[in-house]
Amino acid sequence: MKKILAALLALALLLPCAALAEAANAGYPCVDEPLTLTAFATAGPYTKGDFNDLAMWDVMEELTNITFEFEAAPSGQSAERLGLLFASNTLPDVIFKTGLSTTDVSNYAEEGQLVAIDPYLEEYAPNFSALLETYPEVRKAITMPDGHIYGFPYVVTASPSNCTPKLFINQKVLDAFGAEEPRTLDELTELLRRFKESDWNGNGQADEIPMTMEGFGQVLTGLYGTFGLGTRGASSTSWDIDPETGALRFIPASEGYREWLEYVAMLYQEGLLDEEIFTSDIAAYTAKAEQNILFFAPATNTNYLSTYQDDFVGLSAPLTRAEGEEPFWAGENLAVYANNTFITNQCENPAAVVKYFDYFYGEEGITLFFMGIEGETFYYDEDGNPQYTDFVKNNPDGMNMEEALGTYVCWSGGGNPSVADDLHFGVHLIPEATVTAAQNLLAYGPETIWPADFSYTTEEAELLAEYKLEILTYVEDMRARFITGSESLENWDAYLEQLDRMDLEGYTELVQTALDRYNAE
């Protein structure tokens, strides 16, 4: 993954240059006569007002001669709404910023509801084509089993976004304890126990939470690497490669996973891990941070620690089980998020739409997408780098940066058909402490990162859904039972036997087939 990430970071530096085949506004407008198209979109959490009224659309309309009429749904409702549009075959011309699984893409493509974009790329998408040519990992991630590309991807090169979580620890507590940063699980555990009894906030109550995270998924990615798990990164939480055998491995049936369960169960049952971790979210995490009761609090961003964020720093390396072990970090994501923006069979001019979205993969389009409009939300400094204006950084109406930008652009919530790099995204919106914490961990990440799922044919996808429903549901249920102590880990062998009865072997063979196809592309 280091090679992939380095390549993508290099891409971010090359975006203004000829490597991405962009001459400013070359080949625009997309059509000679004004064209109005319909689109379904997911509105991110910071989008303000009517999605159709965002200032970026005025710029794009003038440039391309294309106007989109959006139906926008909040992120929590968009999947259901889009499913109804597909089921009733009442699709708009374009699906924008709304992710589909690889299985859904294959199914809808087979039904003829999605249009393959790869036949149009060479002629109408010079920026996007250059990206695929120079960085084949992007192409591999977005190519479906039939060999076609249907969705424009979100490519993230801002390094903090590729690290989930960051291992934040309360430096103020360490200083008060006269303690060094923990390097091993034993050192961390000793500090957690000490913090639990410390009455850190001085309220006379035993309300301290030694360890919490935004959600339980981060307990997986944040500690998997310590137990030799997650050798293909954070996107693939169920499957990786066994470093000893080189074979495909179902993580929840491995010895390392049993040892991980044993450690997490100990934390939970001693009251060292947040008792609400299974239902935790960002809002709950921040509310607890505001009470000054947290010590080891891995998260995506120090901003979530709110008032006390300056008390926290990132660990300088992943934790190990024993002193002298080589650290390994599993919490690294694939920098390519496929299948977010599509052209449907209702669109009569796919070439023009491909040309439209290609703009967002070039320097000017990336600047528009993430920074807004020059003179209003950003300006160029003396070095020629874009910087946010005071309207964004010190908004007169009290809006935070994301909210201020949400009146101009639509990037919040992810799924963007563009490239989020450090120049236009990372350095402006991500605190320095978060950047440093991510860089500390990514230095220990895996060489190869898998996507969250591989591509499957329609027949394979049907079988995959059955396996996931039965096996993964069982795994998640037993994971909670083992951790809370309602099921003893002495019953581990019985757990493995049940997985065998559920045909884990067949599930493994199916994933192996998809992996072989992925590796062959």
From TrEMBL:
Key words, A-Z: Signal
Signal peptide: 1-21
Superkingdom assignment: Bacteria
Pfam families: SBP_bac_1
InterPro entries: Bact_solute-bd_prot1, SBP
Protein name per the record: Extracellular solute-binding protein
